[in-house]
């Protein structure tokens, strides 16, 4: 398996976590998203993924998969242990809803290409872009805290005693929030789940600072 990844991409970070949790080995192929205008825009990578986004997973049988949640669902179906989704249908739907709130509602507004468009095309100052980023983090994270409160908050992870797809999406999103100095003190259940995740070797091995291309 080959994973096309970038150390700071939160979407690629999600897939790295899932691969590590499931103990699946892979060959990393590093795609630098800012060097030389962004290697993802070059013809070689564009031929692999016309959307010009990471991550991309090339499977052992030659399939090319994109979109982090689709890749993780494929990993779940082909390597079901340990499970990343609950057996109970209601909890499984809650985990998916939590993950999608990050992947569909928060992350796209603050993705690199959006931030670059604000600067390059709309001429916004960096301070304005940073305020944009913090605004959408501030709008998006409190509802996730409320979801965990409503779910009972037993912990230590988002939905119980084991990490799930929800945690896989949460940890990269909180890492991004810290990069932009977003206040997080009012989110104790999210922070508790993050701390439980960061204590696990799988999350440590997948972290941006542990990637070879972070140097």
Automatic annotation (TrEMBL):
Q: Which GO terms describe its biological process?
A: glutathione metabolic process; L-phenylalanine catabolic process
The UniProt record lists the GST N-terminal domain at 1-83
Top-rank lineage group of the source organism: Bacteria
Q: Which GO terms describe its molecular function?
A: glutathione transferase activity; maleylacetoacetate isomerase activity
Q: Which InterPro entries match?
A: Glutathione-S-Trfase_C-like, Glutathione-S-Trfase_C_sf, Glutathione_S-Trfase, Glutathione_S-Trfase_N, GST_Zeta, GST_Zeta_C, GST_Zeta_N, Thioredoxin-like_sf
* Keyword annotations of the record: Isomerase
CDD domains assigned to the protein according to its UniProt record, in alphabetical order: GST_C_Zeta, GST_N_Zeta
**GO CC, alphabetical:** cytoplasm
Q: Which residues form the GST C-terminal domain?
A: 88-215
Per the UniProt entry, the Enzyme Commission number(s) are: 5.2.1.2
The record's top EC class is isomerase
Q: Which family does it belong to?
A: Belongs to the GST superfamily. Zeta family.
NCBIfam families assigned: maiA
Q: What is this protein called?
A: Maleylacetoacetate isomerase
Q: Which organism is it from?
A: Limobrevibacterium gyesilva
